[in-house]
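Hi everyone, sorry if this is the wrong subforum. Our group has a chain we'd like a structural model of before ordering constructs, and none of us has done structure prediction before. Sequence below.
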Amino acid sequence: MTVVPAEWAPHRAMWLGFPSHADLWEDDLAAAQAEVAALAQALAGPGGEQVKLMTGHPDGEAAARQMLGGVPGVEIAPGRFGDIWLRDTGPIFFGPGQAAAFRFNGWGGKYALEHDDTVAAQIGEAAGAALEAHNFILEGGAVDHDGEGTVLTTGQCLLNPNRNPGWTEAVAETALARSLGAKKVLWLGEGLRNDHTDGHVDNLARFVAPATVACPVAWGRGDPNAEAYDDAARRLAGMTDALGRPLKVVRIPSPGWIDGDDGPVPASHMNFLIANKAVIVPIYAPQPGEFAVGVLKQLFPDREVIGLPSSAILTGGGSFHCITQQEPA
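Answer:
Right subforum, don't worry. Here is the predicted structure as tokens:
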């Protein structure tokens, strides 16, 4: 069976969700739209991507056309979604014209928004992809791929009874093998504190090259996720990939404690996005962001590494990786 390509493989397009619903984003709407517009321009410019900017409401479409209409490489694609988290609601592509779609239940029933369960079909149709539908719940941010059949995930999310009750590691591994071509699944434990996704791996650890995984190291005193970061690093250091190679683990500074209304928010440099010619990193605080960009420059010497603000997007619960989905070439 075909495996899901690594994110650093060439893309035909990059789907990107544009904040469109004032009732959801409230006072953060304008700032979030500005941050997504900056991401779109970076993707279409130095990132070398054909951006398909999906809007979910006529008001969002109007704002997107005002901000990005006529920008080379940005195509505005009106659609319908509950919100912008296309990584989780959209399909997972294997290649041009080939993708898998999964059931979506609002991250374990937390956010049931109209149209989110139709996003995969909308993107599949627009991309001309034949969707293979699977009758279990899976969000794209819960799994990360090395392009050789190794899948990285967390038990906190994938085995959570609010997704697929009764799942064990063995049941989940069989499902991922059948749907995504997974040859080996690597299990991490807990994700970030206050992450409503129940520990998506794209906030915790990411493949950056064959047999190479990046994960955070705590920044500053009182980093709320220090224990989760170190647990992930320890686990990864003892793992091998689907081809039997020991993993190299690279630690990248976390943003540290970033305040929210109800304690620390799940800010993570791991939510970076690998584009055709660039890597775009969400930034929440200047100094740790600068260090994170520096480490990623060493890991991606053939791509420009760009740090962009993402604090307004994070008020909705995620960042750059969460609001995108690549369509392989």
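For your construct planning: The chain has one domain: 11-328. The CA atoms of residues 170 and 250 lie 28 Å apart.
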